[in-house]
Amino acid sequence: MNYEFLLKLARTEIEKKNFVKAKELLVEAIKINNNSFELIYNLGLVNKYLGNLEEAIVCFKKSIKINSNFPASYSILGSIYAQIGNKDLALSNYLKAIKIDSRNFTANYNLANFYLLNEDMSNAEKYFNLSIEINPNNINPYNNLFQLYDRSNNLEKLKEILNRAKKVFGLNNFTKFFEGIYEYRKKNFKASIDIFKNLELEKNEISKSVLRANILAKSYDQLKLYEKAFHFYEETNSILKKTYLNQVNKDRYLNLIDKRLQFFANNCLKISKEKIEDKNNLVFLIGFPRSGTTLLDTILRSHKSIKVLEEKPLIDKIILELEASLKEDFSNLEKLDKNKIAEIQKIYFDERDKFIKLEQNEIFIDKLPLNIIFIAEIIKIFPSAKFIFALRNPYDAVLSCFMQPFIPNDAMSNFLNLQDTVIFYDSVMKLWRSYKEIINLNVHIIKYEDVVNNFDTSLKNLLNFLDLKWSKDLRKFYMTADKKRLINTPSYNQVNQPIYQDSINRWKNYEDKFSDFKEILDKWVKYFEYK
Q: Core-most of 26, 35, 366, 421, by most CB within 10 Å?
């Protein structure tokens, strides 16, 4: 049997997505001819499909040695390096593919996605537009440009790309879907409802189905049709629950909280008074999700002396690093020696420096609300750290989390119904109360409602806590929100708006839905001194 015949059989198996059989055939063929570009290139593809990324890299490198002028080899190799987190090699391979063939659609499109994932908005926009220029009938770059402009709040360009897509594709489900989003963003809620309520999506279009239901819910909410709104919020969460049912486990995250609560409710953590870290001005912005952290982020980053890093899992790396030392016994935090702490600090700062560059004397704020869970570990590693605790009326915080279509992970899967959200809130705040009682935290509590109703005083007090002077730029935060920045939080469409009061006491529109949970939430209303 010759290798050409085996290659033909392998390609048939690849078409049928029988990659294991295809690999067997290609390996046999390579035994006959180990210098065939087509054999080795296809083996690289099969290994990529099978998730054997290191084997795939070896294959594509070998294919490039045989034929260095085939752009797809570089482009696919770049996508593999991007997948495993090697940004430099990903970028260099994408650029090599384009150097060979500047009009290669796949190479330009892959490079655009690389820049998008790495939040280089200017280059992402450039290469998506080049992709459209090369192949105007491929719908994917239109889709990604639309999302780029949506999440960076550039409504002018959002309209432009929508019109370009309509000229090419006409008024089909794709363009109708994005027109519905555009109308919602322009606050034309009735028009958005008219589009989405009649829009039929394929069963496999999960993310679009979630967004459709959620925008219908928000549009009905804006029109004060609260029963219809609540119905579509429930539909949003029902889709998410069915889709991610076997991928997430809300109890795993609750167990993280419970383990800490059981220990810290009965033990006092001893924090070393010795100054260990050599990088100052470290601040953590924490709180329950949907409690105004994105608003504070946007306001504070308009101050020239503040840099905010938005929702990157830097602390997760510390928690993983601590697992071996703690062995699920938090009393071992007291036994961490100075060298171990310095080692973990370096891991944190090295990771931080991948995302943000600090100038001398700048304040760095690590914003990730649920880092509130890990206060004990944070304060042990960074004993001079400051905390900003963003607080919101418990009812509004719970309702907003239920309303928001978070992509479920173990934590966010607690928000798929009101009852679970209330239980989660109760657990988080019990842990916060324990931390507050036993650890001497340098913390400033700021209420969302105070930011809305008494902006200057509220922010001046916060700046005093950060040892910074008042800046009038803070009042113009919504005007200076950078359209070149991709907003990675659910509140992305609010950062370029002035302060508004609609979100205060929104829960009262849905008061009947809270009848079973008042005892739990009223306890926290009293504790946090809400009326």
A: 26
The pLDDT tens digits for 335-392 are 888 899 999 999 999 999 888 888 888 899 999 999 999 999 999 999 999 999 999 9
CA distances from 12 to 3, 15, 16, 239 (A): 14, 5, 6, 36
Domain range for 346 is 278-393+443-527
Sign of CA dihedral 273, 355, 79, 245: positive
On whether both 198 and 140 belong to a single domain, the answer is yes
Q: 186 is written with which tokens? A: 């322009």
**What is the count of structural domains for the chain?**
2
Q: What is the pLDDT of residue 364?
A: 94
Separation between Cα atoms, residue 239 and residue 405, nearest integer Å:
10
Average pLDDT of the segment spanning 30-44: 93
Q: What is Dmax (Cα atoms) for the chain?
A: 83
Phi, psi (rounded to 5 degrees) for 424:
-65, -45
Tokens of 109: 């499109």
Average pLDDT, the chain: 91
Structure confidence by residue, pLDDT tens digits, 513-522: 999 999 999 9
Phi then psi for residue 200, to 5 deg, are: -100, 125
Q: Which amino acid is at 389?
A: F
DSSP state string for 95-125:
HHHHHH-TT-HHHHHHHHHHHHHTT-HHHHH
CATH number of the domain enclosing 460: 3.40.50.300
The model's pTM is 0.85
